[in-house]
Design a protein that fits this description.
Blueprint: H1 4-25, E1 30-40, E2 43-48, E3 51-56, E4 66-71, E5 79-84
Antiparallel strand pairs: 1-2, 1-4, 2-3, 4-5
Length: about 90
């Protein structure tokens, strides 16, 4: 038999899991910090949270720069570099 506290804890964990999933996939703009790993012909490889993304940009960035990247409507296929972090 489960105690009342165990039942409450399980319900709260389920609510938190559902809320986290909803927020993570919600279609609103999200800004991430990443760093430039490489550059070739105006296409930057930016690492964000362990994932590499190829992003075209007319800006000038160097390997090792920390940048802000916008995922429009939380879509990683629609992204752009906003600028250097701390600049």
């Amino acid at each position: 038999m489960y105690s009342e506290q165990e039942i409450v804890d399980a319900i709260l964990k389920s609510i938190a899991d559902v809320a986290k999933k909803a927020v993570t996939s919600a279609p609103y703009d999200r800004t991430y910090r990443g760093f430039i790993k490489s550059v070739s012909s105006g296409v930057y490889t930016v690492q964000i949270e362990g994932m590499d993304y190829q992003i075209k940009s007319s800006g000038t960035y160097a390997v090792g720069d920390t940048v802000y990247v916008l995922f429009v409507q939380n879509n990683p296929n629609n992204k752009l570099i906003l600028g250097k972090a701390g600049a």
